[in-house]
Amino acid sequence: MVNPPGQRTGNHRAQMPSGSVSDGFIVHMFSPRLSLAFRFFSFRMLSFSDLFCHWKNRRLILCKKLHSYKCNEYIADVGTLSPPKGARMFTQSHTRGGNMLIRLITTSALTSALALTIGSQAFAQTELAWWHGMTGANNEMVNELSKEFNESQSEYKIVPVYKGTYPETLNAGIAAFRSKQPPAILQVFDAGSGVMMAAGGAVVPAAEVLEKGGFKFDKSQYLPGIVAYYSKPDGTMLSFPYNSSSPILYYNKDAFKKAGLDENNPPKTWPEVFEAAKKIKSSGAAACGFTSTWLTWIQTENFAAWNNVPYGTNENGLGGTDVKLEINSPLYIQHFQSIADLAKDGTFRYGGRTSEAKQLFTSGECAMLTESSGGLGDVVKSGINYGIGQLPYYEGHGPQNTIPGGAALWVFAGLSDEQYKGVAEFFNFLSQTKIQVKLHEKSGYLPVTLAAYEETKKSDFYEKNPGRETPILQMMGRAPTENSKGVRLINLPQVRDILNEEFEAMLGGKQDAKTALENGVKRANDAIAAAQ
User: Fold this and answer.
1) Same topology for domains 126-245+406-458 and 247-398+478-531, yes or no?
2) Contacts for 217-224 with beta carbons within 8 Å, 24 or more apart?
3) Residue 104, pLDDT above cutoff 60
4) Residue 450 half-sphere exposure, CB side, CA atoms within 13 Å?
5) Are 335 and 303 in contact (CB under 8 A)?
6) Residues 78, 59 contacting (CB under 8 angstroms)
7) Is residue 286 within 8 Å of 292, Cβ to Cβ?
8) Euclidean distance between CA atoms 166 and 374, whole angstroms
9) Is the alpha carbon torsion for 422, 428, 430, 435 positive or negative?
10) Residue 277: its pLDDT value, please?
11) Backbone angles phi, psi at 69, to 5 degrees
12) pLDDT tens readout for residues 505-532
């Protein structure tokens, strides 16, 4: 866990002074390099008698009209340089000599500050580009958090830039790094984690960025499943978990009621989902009974974890990079053949490889949707009368635990020291309990810290919003097994593309589920071997 706002380890910049000052003022005589540290915020023609300066929290402050040791009007701030070795120190007094000293320093300060303001702003913020792949309500949240951070301090400015889909954002980031113009922060989806981890020296671990920025980092304060997913085998957390999610079932309560189904009791197993979908379709309650976003992430990777069956060898890649997929076993074949059969008459409708199918649900076309918990913002925005259920499973296999989806924030090597400090400030900001609670409650993404989760529970949010705790309980419910720790392949985006091609051929009636899965396994295994 990083420090609460304003608390740091070591000697780092203090927060902007806020008014009251201590009774004992210490004024330091600096070398000429002092003028380089000025941050000038306002300048007015003032008489010497109006100007006072004081030293507080390692900053030299200039004030106007000091009464009862209160800084009534803030004029300028002379940085945070440590006093030069051997500097003479004077205590302010109201003697003639003391005032002359203050005037000397004040005059020097204002002259330097004025020189810095001519033709340009005295203090240029360090801009930090944040490349991301968020759309809809989640894009609005990115902009809101960036604005809130920017308004909370004056040294750094987060500039969010939408770079397309998750895969497109990853590719853009890699290309930018190769051209030596990387963004300060790159949002990388779960499938890209293996790619980034394999990049070695191209990235700087998030934990290292935070610690070098002066913030104490304690990973035990984060949800265990999330930390493990974004960490190296030795436990070093490589990226900052921004929008972690878990797949859940959304259902249209009005459609359930029209079809004669219990609107307060969503199906729990896959056979129940398939039967409910048929009833919804045949009754005319909705044009389609069931759809799903992210067939690879939800119906293969999380399917494996939730039903405690292997996705691949070597602990699905967490035990080593030499992995062979095992998703052509009987349970997978049964599951995908059921989906293929429903697709023949439109009971199941395919929306696309990523989150496109969400629109089929929010428009009312399909009555059930398996989708990321992070899709909640758009579901709420649609105004549909929805309910939430846990991810379906097969009796005798699940439920075990789900694995994280969503994305994390990565930091490239090669940034300036000032950029790294700014990134650390931003990660610290995102770690604040109030920020995590807001992100969780508004977006549906998981709170990444235990403190935020506990705070949300204390507020009775889950009691007032049934189903909202479901994705967290799914991930934390049971200790992970070799089948449910996660999936980590050095070319997982490529493997997903291969599997999607086979699933699309299956849903188009060109092959059955067994053929699709066997073809997918062979092609994926060849691609993994070639990428070693």
Assistant:
1) yes
2) 217/1, 217/2, 218/1, 218/2, 220/1, 221/1, 221/449, 221/450, 221/451, 222/1, 222/448, 222/449, 222/450, 223/446, 223/447, 223/448, 223/449, 223/450, 223/453, 223/472, 223/475, 223/476, 224/476
3) no
4) 11
5) yes
6) yes
7) no
8) 14
9) negative
10) 99
11) 60, 35
12) 999 999 999 999 999 999 999 999 999 8
Please report the pLDDT score of residue 1 as a whole number: 54
Residue type, 20: S
47: DSSP letter = -
Look up the pTM and report it: 0.74
Q: Which tens digit of pLDDT belongs to each residue from 258-277?
A: 999 999 999 999 999 999 99
Q: 400: alpha, beta or left, given left = phi > 0 and alpha = psi -120 to 50? A: alpha
DSSP-derived secondary structure for 217-275: --GGGB-HHHHHHTB-TTS-B-SEEEEEE-EEEEEEHHHHHHTT--TTS---BHHHHHH
Confidence of residue 300 (pLDDT cuts 50, 70, 90): very high
Q: How far apart are CA 209 and CA 524, in angstroms?
A: 35
Q: Is the pLDDT of residue 37 over 80?
A: no
Q: For residue 181, how many C-alpha atoms fall within 13 Å in the half-sphere facing its CB?
A: 4
CA nearest to 289, candidates 348, 242, 213:
348
- Would you tell me how many other CB atoms lie within 10 Å of the CB of residue 85? 6
Residue 512 near residue 340 (C-beta atoms within 8 A): yes
CATH number at 126-245+406-458? 3.40.190.10
What are the residue boundaries of the structural domains of the chain, listed by start? Answer: 26-117, 126-245+406-458, 247-398+478-531
Residue 109 has pLDDT above 70, yes or no: no
How many residues are present in the chain? 532
Report CA-CA distances (Å) from 487 to 207, 221, 471, 480, 499.
22, 23, 18, 12, 15
* Exposure on the CB side of residue 389, measured as CA atoms within 13 A: 23
Q: What confidence tens digit (pLDDT) does each residue in 319-332 have? A: 889 999 999 999 99
Q: Please check whether residue 283 is in contact with residue 274, taking contact to mean a CB–CB distance below 8 angstroms.
A: no
Model pLDDT for residues 48-75, shown as the tens digit of each residue: 344 444 444 444 444 443 343 344 444 4
CB proximity list for 220: less than 8 A, separation 6 or greater: 1
Q: Which residue, 233, 240, 250, is CA-closest to 407? A: 240
pLDDT in the model for residue 74: 41
Cα-trace Rg, the chain:
28
The whole-angstrom separation of Cα 261 and Cα 300 is: 28
Nearest to 75 by CA among 106, 34, 31: 106
| pLDDT, average across residues 365-386 | 96
Report residue 154 as tokens. 């004056």
Alpha helices in 64-202 (DSSP H): 96-117, 136-152, 166-178, 193-197
Architecture of domain 247-398+478-531 in CATH?
Answer: 3-Layer(aba) Sandwich (3.40)
